[in-house]
Design a protein that fits this description.
By secondary structure, this protein is α/β, with parallel strands linked by helices. The chain has 17 helices and 12 strands. The model has no long low-confidence stretch (mean pLDDT 89). InterPro entries: DNA_mismatch_repair_MutS_C, DNA_mismatch_repair_MutS_core, DNA_mismatch_repair_MutS_sf, MutS, P-loop_NTPase.
Length: 440
């Protein structure tokens, strides 16, 4: 079963985007290889839905957070070897010798470059094998090849590097030119005998690239790792959560359960509601990936997906107003919820595209209805604090707010959650402080 997170959610939370420097993907994209970047992208696109798989991946990242390591290979050497494996295949040592002899002859007679490219590909493959051999020797010397996450890589490297015919090539002087017979034999081994094993080793190397990169980010950012529980546990508890892009962000703690599945959030403009909601969504998404999270503690039961409604655009081509786009978004979530999926749902300012009376009635009705789906967790923010007062009789709703402290005529925001409902409204004060009315 795939984890659910549609484009609206991915955009709201700025999760993806290699070329978006503000994305969460970019935060973790410290990889050294193209294959590592592709693997990282796949991890972001496909969060995990099994608690054991999540916890297993987390334990690997945690190891590399706690045991600093540098990626031990040259990315250009890996790329050259990968290209050689993709372009070549060999069935026998005799055919390899015939092929190499023909290519060398063509190079001498017609200046054909095939033989030179072949030599370059083989030299790159040989250099990669030597780097792998050096790493494997270090792992064996330090007893890391069987008792740590390095073991998965060592398991792929061992059969090739300890092959009876490998020693002669590994012990050749560095940068020494391959004779025709040596080139033919190495071609047969690399493009024939070892090809599938080398491809598996390359994949393990890409994984190593991602593990080291993500572990490094976790160490530098002081991120922790979540503990995943089975779906049936139906809870989520987080301590000292902050947005992963804010190194000095104010931490907040909150949780959800079967008995308390809705967090009703109020606060003035600029009080930090949207940032808190985005931080919570990112937290849950990364947790399902097994990635480090910007929280001191996080334990959660596995969910089926996340929906958010933060920046819902209108649609000029379809003639949808902002309000109608909001309604359609709520309908999408309602359909998913009614299918008995376990979801984490964020609504930032429900129905802000309509008048206050309709927004009040709709917020009251929709929030009450969603509260009945106790297998799902909701964060719903609003400026209409009167709706919160009317919802106090719903037992599964927790009321929290982000306060504003007035220092004279200047608002100061603590960004720290408090229990209750706030009536703060500083919109006109901000407008007056900016001198807009005086300008007019």
């Amino acid at each position: 079963m795939s984890f659910i997170a549609d484009k609206q959610t991915l955009d709201d939370l700025q999760l993806l985007g290699k070329y978006n420097s503000a994305s969460i993907f970019s935060l973790f994209n410290r990889v050294k290889t193209k294959g590592g970047e592709q693997l990282l992208d796949q991890m972001f696109l496909h969060p995990l839905t099994n608690e054991q798989a999540i916890n297993n991946r987390s334990s690997i990242f945690r190891y590399f957070r706690d045991h600093a390591a540098e990626f031990p290979f040259q990315h250009d050497v890996i790329s050259a070897m990968v290209a050689y494996l993709e372009e070549n295949s060999e069935q026998s040592s005799m055919l390899s010798l015939v092929r190499m002899t023909r290519n060398r002859a063509m190079a001498m007679l017609t200046k054909d470059e095939t033989y030179e490219r072949e030599q370059q590909g083989l030299q790159a493959s040989l250099l990669m094998l030597r780097e792998c051999d050096q790493l494997l020797q270090r792992l064996e010397r330090d007893a890391l090849h069987t008792v740590t996450p390095w073991a998965a890589w060592a398991e792929k490297a061992g059969p090739v590097l300890r092959h009876p015919q490998a020693a002669a090539f590994l012990h050749m002087p560095a940068n020494s030119e391959l004779s025709l017979s040596q080139a033919a034999q190495l071609r047969y081994l690399v493009a024939g005998v070892w090809k599938e094993q080398l491809q598996a080793l390359i994949t393990a190397t890409y994984e190593l690239d991602v593990y080291i990169a993500v572990g490094t980010v976790a160490r530098e950012k002081h991120f922790s790792f979540a503990v995943a529980h089975p779906r049936s546990a139906n809870f989520f508890t987080a301590t000292d959560v902050r947005h992963p892009r804010l190194d000095n962000g104010t931490p907040n703690s909150f949780g959800f359960s079967h008995e308390s599945n809705v967090m009703f959030l109020t606060g003035a403009n600029m009080a930090g509601k949207s940032t808190l909601m985005k931080a919570s969504g990112i937290l849950l998404y990364l947790a399902h990936m097994g990635f480090p999270v910007a929280a001191r503690v996080l334990e959660f039961s596995v969910l089926d997906g996340i929906y958010s409604s933060v920046n819902v655009p209108d649609d000029l081509h379809k003639g949808y107003s902002h309000f109608y786009a909001e309604v359609l978004r709520v309908k999408t979530v309602a359909e998913a919820v009614s299918e008995e999926k376990r979801l984490f749902i964020i609504f930032d300012e429900l129905f802000k595209g309509t008048n206050v009376k309709d927004a009040y009635d709709a917020t009251l009705s929709v929030t009450t209805a969603f509260a009945g789906f106790t297998e799902c967790f909701f964060i719903i923010s609003t400026h209409i604090f009167e709706a919160g007062e009317a919802l106090r009789e719903v037992p599964s709703i927790r009321f929290v707010f982000l306060p504003t402290v007035m220092e004279g005529h200047v608002p100061r925001y603590t960004y720290k959650l408090q229990e209750g409902i706030t009536t703060d409204r500083q919109g006109m004060i901000i407008i007056e402080n900016e001198g807009i009315l005086d300008m007019l």
